Amino acid sequence: MRFNKFFILSCGVILTACEQKLKIAEDAVKPELTTEQVNHDTDDPAIWINHADTMQSLIIGTDKDTDGALYAFNLDGKIVKRIGDLKRPNNVDVAYGLQFNGQKVDIAVVTERETNKIRIFQLPELNPIDNGGIPVFEGETQRAPMGIAMYTRPSDSAIFAIVGRKDGPAEGYLWQYELRADSAGGYVTAGLVRKFGTFSGQKEIEAIAVDNRLGYVYYSDENIGVRKYYADPAKTNNAELALFGQKKFLDDNEGISIYPTSDSTGYILVSNQQDNSFLVFPREGTRENPNDHPLVGSIPVSTMESDGSEITPVTFGGKFPGGLFVAMSNGKVFQYYAWDSLYKKLK
To answer: Which residues contact 240 (CB under 8 A, 6 or more apart)?
Structure first.
């Protein structure tokens, strides 16, 4: 999400102050490397880990435009694959082990905003396996899918896509779909299983992240804070579990990444977009309340207006000490950071 009208007007009236807000901090963490440029506008990354050879893992990212594309980058930031002819691809996430054509495959799932569909590509080749796309938010006047996060249920390995949109109702803003293989047609289909999620109505909901291990989904209600729900649609409790980060962000709260330090502990990083920093909250909550996520601190980074990010504790042979953090930045690029460098700046 870019500037709202109020922010643009404020910058026009108080230019010096706004320029100061948008500057990269002198003590900002520098990326280990920056990717090759895409054609239009990077938006959201996902990290696919090749479990057979982690050094062959990929960063999957979108190029958001009517003439947009899905890109695969290697660990050196080089473009190794481009899937074009996508109509404003917005966000992307990956899932592992989808049962398809008699085998388990890994997938990248992308929202295609101008066609009101999600697209599914098999990894690592990025071959489409969705029969041209799966319509979402059918029957709604407000569609335009934007955010997406994948959830894999531990009990049966069922895979779900949780999808957000440009605009929508105050309740039931997110729709959740279970992915299934069509054995006759040889492609993936999806069935709607849940509508949930409160929306303030102030901006939009784009950034969505799932904590598969703990079973939670988080999303950024921009200008409000981060909302938390159970990720499993079979849960009887469909109520909001938490709203945190209120009044902590300069303007938009955006991309969400979850860094585990154990099965149950770690950090939630949320883009403070116009401050060019990431705010950090405890993944496990507090000792008294697992749904209380007080601010731990802030990490200044070299990204400009980061919409989306992803993180993994995998170090890729020590190439990224502590793990790899990938963030979108203005300039048609993604930036790769080592977690250890970010953690040293946590303040």
So the answer is: 198, 227, 228, 229
268 has which bridge partners?
258, 281
Say which residue the tokens 């899905």 belong to: 70
Please state, in angstroms and rounded to a whole number, the distance separating the CA atoms of residues 322 and 264: 17
Quick check: is 14 in a domain? Answer: no
Strand pairing class (127-128; 225-230): unpaired
Total-model pTM: 0.92
Question: How many domains are there within the chain?
Answer: 1
Residue at 13 is within a domain: no
Place of tokens 């880990």: 49
Whether the Cβ atoms of residue 194 and residue 176 lie closer than 8 Å to each other:
yes
What CATH number is given to the structural domain containing 260?
A: 2.120.10.30
The mean per-residue pLDDT over the stretch 284-293 comes to: 98
Which residue type is seen at 16? T
What does each C-alpha distance from 44 to 1, 149, 193, 238, 279 come to in angstroms? Answer: 11, 11, 25, 27, 18
Local structure of 326: helix, strand or coil = strand
2 is a domain residue: no
> What is the residue-averaged pLDDT of the chain?
93
Structure tokens, 172: 């039931």
Q: Rounded distance, CA 81 to CA 127, Å?
A: 11
The one-letter code for the residue type at 203 is: K
**338 vs 324: CA distance, rounded Å:** 5
Residue 1 located in a structural domain: no
Give the number of other CB atoms < 10 A from CB of residue 302.
17
Mind listing the pLDDT tens digit for each residue in 1-48? 444 443 444 444 333 334 444 678 889 999 999 999 999 999 999 999
Domain around 218: 24-345
